[in-house]
Design goal:
The complex is a heterodimer of chains A (about 110) and B (about 600). By secondary structure, chain A is mostly helical. Chain A has helices at about 5-20, 25-50, 70-100. In chain A, about 35% of the residues are buried. Chain B has a two-stranded antiparallel ribbon. The chains are: A mainly alpha (about 110), B mainly alpha (about 600).
Chain lengths: ~110, ~600
């Protein structure tokens, strides 16, 4: 078992969050959000990976063949679908922000505070 | 009866699809009937489910994938009386909000109804889910609907800012949750909550489980707007249309807490149930939230922002109730959820009525303009008194049960802080009510910061409906504390909810749960301490409200901390994300120290 995939996942997560926290552009921010989420794909896939395992399609394979975990792929796919909806919404809001204020800087649209 | 739980999700989602799909084909009245009918039918089924869940956990396995030999591969809904009760309240609040929206947002596209119904289905699914990954899916479904609803009227920058801050902070919470799921799955190879708990019973819990718990629970705490994850809430609630606020503030925020309780008692009570480490952190987060948000509510002049902080304040009290980790505390949280959802919804409805009548919802600008509006005034003051928890009104019984739980554990200082929080938030609402409906006090106040501009709404044609809905919500909410038998049933439901091994046996081995016996149908009384605290809190809130109205100037010593508090809530999403990271890291660090 290698720790590398877990380290990579952690690093991608933190880099993505750093990007969100310091972003000056809503579209850039949406991309950073995607980066953050990519870490969960890496993590899920490395969790389910089995060395020398085949793809989990059991038609025509011998009983007892080692296969990778099929569940994590389903989780990853659901994860992707969910994030598409969110990113789409944030990009639409970025368009609205630009239409209303001429800027996509999160500081620039901070109309309400306190 | 295991066919009912899926319907609570299927009916609203199918109706949402039908509403969106038939938008330009069917006439308006048919559409309205479909939307309201679906929502009301869901509520009615939730009542039936509550009736059946009283005896034993109603479990539905999708596609018939029942566990074999104690191993669950399928996905289930598992509904006890607490979850069913949540679904009932969610149904009532959404139905009332849809009725209100009929005339409030006359010109709005029909997609509004579709989004509300999607949120309804997702919230019911969340309350009933017995599967970790499905919790995430429902969480995200309700969140996406909520983001879109928040930014629904995009004519101004405010709604865009609110929706962006809401979306990004909560999405990040969702991602924390997914990483937590991956870690838990790596450790246990299971996604069913009962199965995970069973797997964690063997072997040492270790650092991985603590990290996973931190990520999962913080994901819910972000949704539940607990300090320091609460910053998005005020921005989002200030700009969303009133009926949306009623749903967001009344039920959707609180449901994050139900997620915390569900995860703790099905999964993390197994490895960490011996000590109080997990609960103590939740208790402290709740206490800080209650007092800080109560203070912030007092510093607001925008009514919906004030209400947002009042919601966060009560969230803190409820989280403290969960953090006590006993039956009394959880039962108190449950009863507070009921009363708080209805009362908060009614106050948002009144704010919406003021917005319709006067085109603004700023406390100072509205001074005296609500004179003569008797019905909204009655709803506002009754709702406020209910939210303070004056003896035998509104949240009182729930709050009293949390007090009992704290005293049994020998933490008699907890109730004092919690009552202080609800009194602070209540004082803000009383002050606003007195200024608007009675015309008391000045029309300027340096304490409250600058005004937020607001777009006037079109005048609603059927104002009686708005007023009627607000009154119905407030009457239901105020009465919660004196419904005979409700207190005893809440305690029984909480006991069932906390029964980790009983739940696992029911889910994995289909064993029956102990029957409740006959529960008395009498009004539950609380301890004398609670009575005194509640009276004290009411008097304190009245006094503070008067001080807020008639004080000549701000005491000099208060100015710097007030400025700091205002500037912390900066409205910039980057700051919020930083707070999320810091909050998660600190919470996890404290747990790592307490639980190793």
């Amino acid at each position: 078992m290698s720790y590398l995939p877990y380290a990579v996942a952690g690093w991608i997560f933190l880099v993505g969050i750093a990007g969100i926290a310091t972003s000056k552009n809503l579209i850039h921010l949406a991309v950073c959000l995607t980066v953050t989420q990519s870490s969960s794909y890496v993590l899920l896939l490395s969790v389910g990976y089995v060395k020398h395992g085949v793809a989990p399609i059991f038609l025509g394979t011998k009983l007892g063949t080692t296969a990778v975990d099929p569940v994590v792929q389903a989780l990853t796919l659901t994860d992707v679908v969910v994030s598409v909806a969110v990113i789409g919404l944030i990009l639409a809001l970025a368009l609205d922000a630009h239409r209303l204020s001429g800027t996509v800087d999160p500081d620039g649209i901070a109309d309400v505070s306190g | 009866m295991s066919w009912i739980p899926p319907l609570l999700v299927a009916i609203p989602l199918l109706a949402a699809a039908a509403t969106a799909g038939l938008d330009h084909v069917t006439p308006q009245p048919v559409q309205d009937a479909l939307v309201i009918g679906a929502s009301a039918a869901t509520t009615a089924l939730a009542f039936v489910l509550l009736w059946h869940a009283e005896d034993h956990e109603v479990v539905h396995w999708f596609g018939g994938w029942q566990p074999k030999h104690g191993v669950a591969l399928g996905v289930d809904f598992a509904v006890g009386p607490l979850a069913a009760g949540m679904c009932v309240v969610i149904g009532i609040v959404v139905t009332l909000s849809l009725l209100y929206a009929l005339t409030f947002l006359r010109e709005a596209a029909r997609l509004f109804d579709a989004l509300m119904l999607a949120a309804l289905g997702a919230m019911c699914g969340f309350a009933m889910s017995g599967d970790l990954f499905n919790l995430f899916v429902w969480l995200e479904l309700m969140a996406v609907a909520a983001y879109a609803l928040t930014g629904f009227q995009v004519e101004r920058l405010g709604p865009v800012q609110g929706a962006v801050n809401f979306a990004i902070t909560n999405t990040l919470g969702g991602y924390l949750f997914v990483v937590g799921i991956a870690l838990i799955y790596a450790r246990t190879g299971a996604l069913n909550l009962a199965q995970i708990g069973k797997a964690l019973a063997h072997g040492p819990a270790g650092g991985l489980v603590i990290v996973a718990m931190t990520l999962l629970l913080c994901g819910f705490l972000i949704k539940g707007a607990v300090v320091p994850f609460h910053l998005w809430a005020a921005d989002a609630y200030a700009v969303a249309p009133a009926p949306v606020c009623a749903v967001l503030g009344g039920v959707m925020t609180d449901i994050g807490l139900i997620g915390v309780a569900r995860l703790y008692w099905t999964v993390f009570a197994v490895p960490f149930g011996q000590g109080h480490g997990v609960g103590d952190v939740l208790l402290w987060l709740g206490l800080v939230t209650a007092v800080l948000a109560g203070t912030m509510a007092f510093l607001q002049r925008h009514l919906k922002r004030m209400l947002a902080y009042s919601v966060v304040c009560h969230i803190g009290i409820m989280l403290a109730g969960i953090g006590l980790l006993d039956t009394s505390g959880l039962a108190g949280t449950e009863l507070m959820f009921l009363a708080h959802a209805l009362l908060t919804a009614s106050l948002f409805f009144v704010a919406g009525i003021l917005h319709v009548d006067h085109g603004l919802i700023d406390e100072l600008h509205l001074r005296g303009r609500g004179r003569g509006c008797w019905a909204p005034a009655v709803a506002w003051f009754a709702g406020t008194i209910g939210l303070i928890g004056t003896p035998y009104v509104g949240i009182y019984l729930g709050h009293g049960l949390i007090d009992d739980g704290a005293s049994e554990l020998g933490r008699s200082w907890v109730p004092a802080l919690l009552w202080l929080g609800s009194a602070l938030a209540g004082a803000a609402l009383l002050r606003a009510g007195a200024r608007i409906f009675l015309g008391w006090g000045d029309d300027e106040d340096e304490l409250l910061g600058r005004a937020i501009e607001e777009d006037p709404l079109e005048r609603a044609v059927r104002r009686p409906i708005l007023v009627g809905v607000a009154l119905v919500a407030v009457v239901l909410g105020v009465a919660i504390s004196v419904v005979p038998g409700l207190g005893q049933r809440a305690e029984y439901a909480a006991g069932r909810f906390r029964d980790t091994s009983g739940y696992a046996a029911r889910i994995l081995h289909d064993r029956a749960m102990p029957a409740p016996g006959s529960l008395p149908v009498t009004i539950q009384h609380t301890s004398v301490d609670s009575l005194l605290y509640a009276s004290g809190a009411t008097i304190f809130a009245l006094g503070l409200a008067f001080a807020g109205l008639y004080r000549r100037r701000m005491p000099r010593a208060l100015a710097p901390p007030v400025r700091v508090l205002h500037s912390l809530h900066s409205g910039v999403v980057g700051d919020y994300v930083t707070w999320v990271v810091v909050g998660t890291a600190v919470t996890g660090g404290v747990w790592a120290i307490l639980l190793r």
